Amino acid sequence: MGMRPSELWGRFDWQSGSCFRCEQTNVPVAEVGEIAVAGTVLPLCACQRCVFRLEQLHWTMSERAVRQRNAPAPAQPLPLGQWPTKVPFDRPPSHVA
Ligand SMILES: [Zn+2]
Fold first, then answer.
1. 23: CA distance to ligand 1 center in Å?
2. 37: containing domain
3. What are the start and end residues of every segment in region (Disordered) (predicted)?
4. Cα dihedral sign for 58, 63, 67, 69?
């Protein structure tokens, strides 16, 4: 599933600003999300190169998520009391006490 950069960039509104990712200033940036700082929501803007990279990451992660959904369920972890030692967990180890 490929997408040409021009197609991808056409889906965003570009304006001059700073990129949150590579920290370039006065470059065309697009809003790619938001970040909450001390109760204030600020837009996150990224430049064209970083938007492209973030899209690639997004693809990679969604494909990975699909693979994981299709993979057999992982083995159940051992109950805590059995791992990995026979020392009971109801008191600290002797070297702590
Ligand atoms: Zn950037």
1. 6
2. 5-69
3. 68-97
4. positive
